[in-house]
Amino acid sequence: MLRLGFPVVGVTDLDRAAAFWSAALHLTVSDEWSSAAWRTLTGPDGARTLGLMRSVSPPEPRPRLHLDLFVDTTAEQATEVARLLGLGATRPDWDGYPTDPDFVVLADPDGNVFCVVDLSRAPSSG
To answer: Domains of the chain by range and CATH?
Structure first.
């Protein structure tokens, strides 16, 4: 039976990406499911949650598929955005925000964009 696995992010520096995403999402790098070109990050229950794959192509500035990270309040969103920036995320130039967005666009240290979404204000209008 076919089933959905987990998201995979292409990165140029596996160690840097594994350190960022592990800290960002409170995950652990799995020794069992990792290699020289791949890292699998697992949750507290050992479930495979995120894959990191060595990539030579640059990140897309406007990817059709990206990660949404959820928080429950506007205050939590501000706290998490600040924490992620402290871990090495950046704020890319993003001109696609609606008038009153419920999300903040960030990029991981490799330049892959993702959003931090405040569920108390979702969905964004526009």
So the answer is: 8-54 (3.30.720), 67-118 (3.10.180.10)
